[in-house]
Design a protein that fits this description.
By secondary structure, the protein is α+β, with helices and mostly antiparallel strands. The chain is built from four helices and twelve strands. The strands form two sheets. Strands 1, 2, 3, 4, 5, 6, 7 and 8 form an eight-stranded mixed β-sheet that branches. Strands 9, 10, 11 and 12 form a four-stranded antiparallel β-sheet that branches. A hairpin with a 2-residue loop joins strand 10 and strand 11. This is ADP-ribose pyrophosphatase.
Length: 205
């Protein structure tokens, strides 16, 4: 099953046409890496739990390695590779091909409004030892089959400016996956499953 999932991911991502932001050229930019690996017969996607840091709007949250684009980065793809190496010590070279891209997203945190995030998907085959920097509390492999099982999907309440919204999420071994990271995963799961990607709706109280 997991080998078939990987093959479907590679095949369908190759033909996937992610949406792009029209104003990307004048907006601040960032990129992240979604890394797939077969581990003991199970296909997983690598996630990080960000360190608890004052002033970080995503402090303590589950995310993907990545960050802001630097002037010396030739492309968003290079940003994803550089940030992955800086954050978890994993060099994504020729052995780890980028097998596709997902739709660009706008960061919704007020501090980074106007930041467009480009997600890239990689296939990692070799065994590696991670060396997280101060921004990363831990590295976690989340099984794709867990994410594809709709029975594992839950709801959470998110409140901002007095408005409460019911939002989708997953709890994987007591780690909550939600927000931008979940939107990226939802698109990846839709592509793998052969569905038309569509944003999961949030419901107001």
């Amino acid at each position: 099953m997991s080998i078939a999932l990987l093959q479907m991911a590679e095949s369908r991502l190759a033909g996937h046409r992610p949406s792009r932001k029209w104003l990307k050229g004048i907006m601040k930019r960032a990129a992240v890496a979604l890394i797939l690996q077969l581990r003991e017969g199970e296909l997983g996607v690598l996630m990080i739990r960000r360190s608890d840091r004052e002033g970080d709007p995503w402090s303590g949250q589950m995310a993907f390695p990545g960050g802001r684009k630097e002037p010396d980065d030739e492309s968003d793809l290079e940003t994803a590779r550089r940030e992955t190496e800086e954050e978890i010590g994993l060099h994504l070279g020729a052995q780890e091909p980028c097998i596709g891209a997902l739709s660009e997203l706008n960061a919704i945190n007020s501090r980074f409004r106007g930041l467009v995030i480009s997600p890239y998907v990689f296939h990692l085959e070799r065994s590696v030892n991670f060396h997280p920097n101060h921004e990363v509390a831990e590295v976690v492999w989340v099984p794709l089959e867990f994410l594809l099982d709709t029975d594992n999907r839950e709801e959470m309440v998110w409140e901002r400016n007095g408005i409460k919204l019911r939002m989708p999420c997953y709890f994987y071994e007591e780690r909550r996956i939600w927000g931008l990271s979940l939107r990226m995963l939802d698109e990846l799961m839709d592509v793998v499953a052969g569905k038309s990607p569509g944003r999961k709706r949030w419901r107001r109280f």
